[in-house]
User: Which sequence fits this backbone?
């Protein structure tokens, strides 16, 4: 949800970075979104295309990488991917887990001309 | 020749910076801030009424979030505590900036416990941090046992889940055991308290949970 607000935030970050680097066009924006953030890439792309009209980022490709939830078990130090929100260690059955990956929501990089 | 520029900016940086500022202000004032989330009608406001009847209200404040009306704030007026009602219009959740503005209207130096009653919604509030020390979810037993599996982020983010309206259990085909098991599958660390705002059963455990987290005045 809230893809429109996120798209606007992405545009702000992209234009700030583009301007700081003397760009006259943005070709591509790479987003990294952890699975826990429940982002819908198609919706995000649609909203970004809409807000980016008439800006340096108009027509830029929005590449969205959804990264899985990765955790480390505090009990046995096993690292594993969480499937279907089952937060239980497959090794020792422990449930004290540190989340290594899966909560991020970033503009990773942009490609400019 | 296109150039790739590394950015690594959090898309919600704006909200995160407000959340961090709110947290700093809460900590400076020794205010424990709890974000109360639930579906509409699960019983957040009633729980606050029962809570304020049982605790000394002199160091408690409430921020009420609703899309429309001031009805929830009005229900709590009789306790004489600082209440700020935020009407979000069509925003379906509270965010860091809204809370930053709200706390300007409260003298937090006197407040040890701040309840932030979020907009009734099982989806969006979990996505937005506001600087609170703890998130909690109120789940009515009329909502079915599978809600934690359907709305995992909510239960993942919460430290406490209150199962409310247990007075209705004789009228329902509901397994509290299954509901708790589902919630703990999503978040094994989740504490839970089953209670009834109508009969008072279980409320003492909720009050104890709060008191364990409040810093003394003075």
Assistant:
């Amino acid at each position: 949800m809230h893809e429109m607000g996120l798209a606007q935030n992405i545009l702000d970050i992209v234009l700030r970075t583009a301007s700081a680097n003397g760009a006259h066009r943005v070709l591509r924006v790479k987003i990294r979104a952890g699975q826990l953030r429940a982002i819908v890439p198609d919706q995000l792309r649609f909203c970004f295309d809409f807000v980016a009209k008439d800006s340096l980022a108009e027509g830029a490709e929005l590449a969205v990488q959804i990264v899985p939830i990765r955790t480390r078990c505090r009990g046995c130090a096993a690292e594993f991917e969480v499937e279907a929100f089952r937060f239980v260690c497959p090794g020792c059955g422990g449930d004290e887990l540190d989340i290594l990956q899966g909560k991020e929501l970033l503009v990773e990089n942009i490609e400019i001309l | 020749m296109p150039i790739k520029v590394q950015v690594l900016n959090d898309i919600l940086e704006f909200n995160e910076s407000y959340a961090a500022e709110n947290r700093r202000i809460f900590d400076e004032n020794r205010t424990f801030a709890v974000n109360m989330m639930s579906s509409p009608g699960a019983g957040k406001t009633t729980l606050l009424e029962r809570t304020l009847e049982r605790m000394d209200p002199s160091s408690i404040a409430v921020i009420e979030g609703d899309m429309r009306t001031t009805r929830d704030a009005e229900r709590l007026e009789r306790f004489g505590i600082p209440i700020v009602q935020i009407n979000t219009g069509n925003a379906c959740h509270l965010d860091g900036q809204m809370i930053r503005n709200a706390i300007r209207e409260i003298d937090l130096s006197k407040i040890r416990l701040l309840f932030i009653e979020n907009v009734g919604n099982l989806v969006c509030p979990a996505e937005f941090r506001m600087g609170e020390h703890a998130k909690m979810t109120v789940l009515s037993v009329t909502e079915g046992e599978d809600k934690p599996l359907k709305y995992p982020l909510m239960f993942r983010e919460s430290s406490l889940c209150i199962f409310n309206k247990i007075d209705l259990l004789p009228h329902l085909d509901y397994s509290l055991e299954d509901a708790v098991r589902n919630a703990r599958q999503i978040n094994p660390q989740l504490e839970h308290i089953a209670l009834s705002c109508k009969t008072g059963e279980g409320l003492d455990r909720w009050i104890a949970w709060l008191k364990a987290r409040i810093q003394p005045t003075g």
In short: The helical segments of chain B are 13-28, 44-54, 71-76, 96-103, 147-150, 152-157, 176-186, 203-211. The interface with chain A takes residues 1-14, 92, 123-124, 127, 149, 152-153, 156, 184-189 of chain B (CB under 8 Å).
